[in-house]
Automatic annotation (TrEMBL):
InterPro entries: MethylDNA_cys_MeTrfase_DNA-bd, MethylDNA_cys_MeTrfase_DNAb, MethylG_MeTrfase_N, MGMT, MGMT_N_sf, WH-like_DNA-bd_sf. Pfam families: DNA_binding_1, Methyltransf_1N. It catalyses: a 4-O-methyl-thymidine in DNA + L-cysteinyl-[protein] = a thymidine in DNA + S-methyl-L-cysteinyl-[protein]; a 6-O-methyl-2'-deoxyguanosine in DNA + L-cysteinyl-[protein] = S-methyl-L-cysteinyl-[protein] + a 2'-deoxyguanosine in DNA. It is found in: Cytoplasm. Its main location: cytoplasm. This is Methylated-DNA--protein-cysteine methyltransferase. It comes from Streptomyces harbinensis. GO terms for cellular component: cytoplasm. Residues 5-72 form the Methylguanine DNA methyltransferase ribonuclease-like domain. The keyword Transport does not apply.
Length: 161
């Protein structure tokens, strides 16, 4: 069984917890102070050296010097969720889209918008996989596991608000 490791990173939008394996591949990035919380599993081992590349890229993003992440991820989620998450990665920096547009981009029916929203809400890689760029059809900020205030801050940093 592979060892799961984690570290904490300070950011302009609050503390982030990075989780993955010893190779530096990420399985999750979350905010411990978010409405849903992001607890550290006692079985995980803290290692502040493994995620150096992720920490560097996050610092570049928050400095305004990076618009896309190029990091290894551990495969998670169903085939449907992976399709939705891939669509998130194609949303350009500084732009927003809607849940309906994401559904259409993966060939899902209009009736599947709720399922797309569920997949977006289950995105385990906050900030890095930009689910914060998905907004309501009426332009409202809706549904972000890190909290709507953090979503607003991320979109403002990117110039999307």
């Amino acid at each position: 069984m592979a060892t799961t490791v984690w570290t904490r990173v300070d950011s302009p939008v609050g503390e982030l917890v990075l989780v993955g394996d010893r190779s530096g591949a990420l399985s999750a990035v979350g905010s411990p102070d978010s409405p849903k919380g992001f607890p550290v599993d006692p079985a995980w081992e803290r290692d502040d050296t493994v995620f150096g590349e992720a920490v560097r890229q996050l610092a570049e993003y928050f400095a305004g010097d990076r618009t896309r992440f190029a990091l290894p991820y551990l495969p998670t989620g169903s085939e449907f969720r992976r399709r939705v998450w891939a669509a998130l990665e194609s949303i350009p920096y500084g732009e927003t889209t809607t849940y309906g547009a994401v559904a259409a981009s993966i060939g899902a029916s209009r009736a599947a918008v709720r399922a797309v929203g569920g997949a977006i809400g289950a995105n385990p890689l906050q900030v890095i996989r930009p689910c914060h760029r998905v907004i309501g059809a009426d332009g409202s900020l809706t549904g972000y596991a890190g909290g709507l205030e953090r979503k607003r801050q991320l979109l403002e940093r990117e110039g999307a608000l």
